[in-house]
Design brief:
- With 418 residues, this protein is of the alpha/beta class.
- Helices cover 19% and strands 40% of the residues.
- The chain contains 8 helices and 22 strands.
- Strands 1, 4, 5, 7, 8, 10, 11, 13, 15, 17, 19 and 21 form a 12-stranded mixed beta sheet that branches. A 10-stranded mixed beta sheet has the order 3-2-6-9-12-14-16-18-20-22, covered by helices on one side.
- The relative contact order is 0.09.
- The C terminus is likely disordered.
Length: 418
């Protein structure tokens, strides 16, 4: 165990000899622990974990992993950040577990710097030109007390290649606190297609503060989805750089939170080339004293004509003490663009509630149906197809009266589009 001062020394020691990790450790030490004076952390109170004496790379396998029934996927298991070969399927061609340098920087975020400094190994996925790799299910699980883990994944898909990745993060605090800072970097070459879904689950002593970074070249298509099911705090930072003409990104997120959970999304999409498109939609269903925050910025560079970007934040409040904060933002330096942003926050529609109740549906089931109708816009876009059903089942387990709904009906097995 260490104090924060010696923890930074430990970061420097483990990063010794690696210029990327050493630089990341120096950035973290220079900026210090995040606090609410930092604009990016305005709505997140980090004081409960600031003075914890973190153990680096500790932890064991969890007792209740997130069991996803995803036929046809290849499972790669990481326990406390360490690859578990015995629990994993064989690594396919083009996939290695090693330490590789980063190609996308995230210098303005302390948790990204922390992960880059602490990550000793990286899941490195390289898809060749025109190759479609089998769907990968990357499982990150950690159980321990006052432990910090830093999973890192770099996905490179060559021109015309296709890949679907499901990341499931399961954390158990074992009476202490677990802080997980995962980074996934996606580098999509011209006309590549990448689909990434990150699901997070944990108990009241777990925090997940991670990053997804995307770089999309000419004609590349990248879809990402984040679905946090549990944990005290789930913060996701998304950074997307559209650097080639006609590139497209879809960024989606859904959270259903109760008790005193906090869910946060910090989003930055940069349009740096002509005729690129982006679509962002993030939804929260909040009950009890739960809170959610969304900060989204679209940057359109000078010369990025023909940009078409849509940003949406929607929040459904099921209790008078739930809170949602939305800050959609635009920064545009081109004139031939179409950029929109919007945010809504409110209670379930009373007219829809009356319509269902008038047709003999009981109050509890009506409430579950309204939540599902609100959430399905995100869940129905998940890939692969089996994940849609599993995600629907998990959501219904969280809803009162959800057992009256059929996940295979509301999230049908549609054909995969690769």
């Amino acid at each position: 165990m260490t104090t924060m001062t010696t923890f930074i020394d430990t970061l420097n020691d483990t990063a010794a000899g690696d210029s990327m990790r050493t630089a990341a450790a120096a950035r973290f030490a220079q900026r210090g622990w995040p606090n609410r004076r930092d604009e990016a952390f305005r709505y997140l109170d980090l004081r409960p974990i600031k003075d914890i004496e973190w153990a680096l790379h500790g932890g064991t396998a969890v007792q209740s992993p997130m069991n996803l029934d995803l036929p046809g996927t290849r499972r790669l298991v990481f326990t406390a950040g360490v690859f578990d070969e015995a629990a994993s399927d064989a690594l396919p061609e083009g996939v290695t577990v090693e330490h590789v340098p980063t190609t996308i920087t995230a210098e303005d975020d302390q948790f990204s710097s922390l992960c880059m400094a602490a990550a000793e190994t990286t899941l490195h996925v390289k898809v060749g030109e025109g190759v479609t790799l089998d769907t990968l299910h990357v499982i990150h699980e950690t159980r321990g007390g006052d432990v910090l883990v830093a999973p890192r994944c770099v996905i490179e898909v060559a021109s015309g290649g296709t890949l679907i990745v499901v990341e499931s993060v399961t954390l158990e605090s074992d009476g202490g606190t677990v802080l997980c800072t995962p980074i996934t970097e996606i580098i999509a070459a011209p006309n590549a297609r990448v689909e990434l879904a990150r699901l997070v689950d944990g108990d009241e002593g777990t925090w997940c503060c991670g990053t997804i970074a995307v770089k999309a070249d000419n004609g590349a298509v990248v879809h990402t989805s984040t679905v946090p099911y549990g944990g005290a705090v789930c913060r996701t930072r998304l950074e997307s750089h559209l650097c080639g003409e006609t590139a497209h990104v879809d960024l989606r997120g859904l959270a259903v939170a109760g008790d005193s959970r906090h869910v946060e999304t910090v989003l930055k999409v940069r349009h740096a080339a002509e005729n690129c498109t982006s679509n962002m939609i993030f939804k929260h269903v909040l009950d009890d004293n739960a809170t959610a925050s969304f900060t989204g910025r679209i940057n359109v560079d000078e010369g990025a004509q023909g940009t078409d970007a849509v940003q949406t934040s929607r929040n459904m409040l099921l209790s008078p003490t739930a809170r949602a904060y939305s800050r959609p933002q635009l920064e545009i330096y081109a004139d031939d663009v179409k950029c929109t942003h919007g945010s809504t926050t409110g209670r379930p529609d009373p007219a829809a509630d009356f319509y269902l109740r008038a047709r003999g549906i009981d109050k509890v089931t009506t409430a579950s149906l309204l939540v599902w109708a609100f959430a399905s816009e995100v869940l129905d876009e998940l890939e692969p197809a089996a994940l849609r059903v599993e995600a629907a089942r998990r959501l219904m387990d969280m809803l009162p009266g959800g057992d009256a709904l059929d996940p295979t009906v509301v999230a049908p097995q549609q054909p995969d589009t690769a």
